Amino acid sequence: MADELSDNAKKIYDAMKKLGATSEEKLKTADDIMKAAALGKSIVNAALQELQKKGYVKRVARQKSAGYFVVK
């Protein structure tokens, strides 16, 4: 992971690990992650997009809200 992620993305990644969002069955919403990381919604969404682009997190579209989980 090293220097390729922003500080906020690292916080979000760590929060997702703590929440146990490590598989599709255990995915978490952006709101869950926002509460765990104690960061604002726009910061969380930007960090989630960064993590997705770099292959750390996968997004799963669902009926009400998308869920996210760590893939590496």
The biggest beta sheet is recorded as: 3 strands, antiparallel
Mean pLDDT: 94
The total of beta strands comes to 3
Helix content bin? 40-55%
Helix/strand/pairing class, anyone?
A: alpha+beta
Number of helices: 3
How far apart lie the N and C ends? Answer: 10 Å
Unreliable parts = none
Hey, roughly how much beta strand do the residues contain? Answer: 5-15%
What is the C-alpha radius of gyration, as a whole number of Å?
Answer: 11 Å
Widest sheet: strand ordering: 1-3-2
Describe the 3D structure.
The chain is an alpha+beta fold and 72 residues long. The chain contains three helices and three strands; from the N terminus they run H-E-H-H-E-E. The longest helix has 13 residues, at 7-19.
Give the structure's gist in a few sentences.
With 72 residues, the protein is an alpha+beta fold. It has helices at residues 7-19, 30-37, 41-53, and strands spanning 28-29, 57-60, 67-70.
List the SSEs and their pairings.
Elements: H1 7-19, E1 28-29, H2 30-37, H3 41-53, E2 57-60, E3 67-70
Q: How would you describe this structure in keywords?
A:
47% helix, three-stranded antiparallel beta sheet, 3 helices, 3 strands, alpha+beta, globular, 72 residues
